[in-house]
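Regression test attached.
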Amino acid sequence: MHEEALLRDLHRKVLEVAAAQAATRVRRISLWVGALAHLTEEQLRARWVETFAGTLAEGAQLDIEHSLDPEDPRADKIVLTKMDIDLRHVEGSS
Amino acid sequence: MTERTIDVDYVARVEGEGACHVTIRDGAVDDVQLRIFEPPRFFEALLRGRRYDEAPDITARICGICPVAYQMSACHAVERSLGLTLDGPLRDLRRLLYCGEWIESHALHVYLLHLPDFLGYPDAMALAKERPAAVRRGLELKKAGNAILRTLGGREIHPINVRVGGFYRVPTLEEAATLRPVVEGALALAEETFLFASTLDFPKIEFDYEFVALTHPDEYPMNEGTVTSSTGLQLPAERFEEAFEEVQVPYSNALQVVRKGRGSYLTGPLARYALNRERLTPRARALATEAGLPDVVRNPYQAIVVRSLEMVFACEEALRILDDYRPPEVPYQTPPHPPAEGSWAAITEAPRGMLFHRYRLDAHGTIQEARIVAPTTQNQKRIEDDLRTVVARSLDQDDRHLADACEKAIRNHDPCISCATHFLDLTVDRGER
């Protein structure tokens, strides 16, 4: 029931990380979804495209690892684990 | 172009559900809009086509803090269609279950959401670090409320043992006896909480609230009563919609409820106390007198005191019910007739205030239409009115301090919005170029 707020928070964090890295594009976003997070993959994917429309993360691939372990200390959480981003190549950088 | 993988490991948070927009013109507050973004959840639509006896379990899922309120309002509404009125131990057990919910909900609000404001901490985590005993007291109280819910409801959150006509199973005498020392311990903690809360330093502010709550001739209201307003209105719960209406505002997903022809009003602990003080237990009344709590509290910040007093009352009431308890022969009453076609409504007193349910049933007992009016929506307009005054008194402060003042004013009233507004997104339009 809180998917709207969670997506807004993820949207904010993804763009914050992208900006901090001076990314030109976000290619892939990886989420870990706890067993007790009360949010299904279907719910997340249903709103994903419009959440990131018009941003650096538009069209980014969404990978979701859905945990089935209710004993996990983060079982009720959703974790943004990784992001694959494009960086502008700067002369002299490795 | 270089590609890189960033390890983020960030836990997403549910926050920012509330925002507040303030417009200031010529040094005065022009408008205050409390915006709630929580999207519609369509519970009323979900109930259409379901059997009348499914309503208590479905609506219990609306709130994790006050599921009992939803179950009780649903049961009472559909029981009217069955010509069923509970009495004896079953009626008492429902009241006991409600006591459990008041204790756990009030403990959460008082200790984890409201108290940090008065002691100068940003939140309960910070409070726990420096004053662990205070938070421990709150958690103990919450645990006692949860123990009642678990014993009667089968589990602490979203209980599953409530049914139309009573319960699926009632506690044994031994189970009731096990609860007694837990509630007795909670009563001592609740009294301590009340006396401590009474000594807090409150901003000097009072509002001319229209208080609306259930009133009952014999008891402090929980499951039954007449809708009563401090301005003189009295009407049966099933006629609530004659005097109150939901209105939609363009800036918020949440509906607002107003008294027709009058405007905002306040429901919840301050209203219940103002209209039912004489029906508190003698001990709770004596404590209120001892602490100098006025008969009508118009300072919203003092809601923490009234909430604490209601915890004292709920513990005492729970003890009375436990002491008198004799298990009924059957766990539920059988209705005298099948559900009658028509529109059936009820109101009970959730910890946050009046909770209205109405169901239109067809001749087979199938729900054709459902309407649920939660206390949160009823207080929304009143909270905006409070904020107008709070902002007007803080106009010389910067936006960060203004946001802080607004968050505190909101936390006076509601645990649900309070939770969301620990991160209130405040925008102030001061009309400056």
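Expected vs. actual: identical. The interface with chain A takes residues 1-17, 37-39, 41, 420 of chain B (CB under 8 Å).
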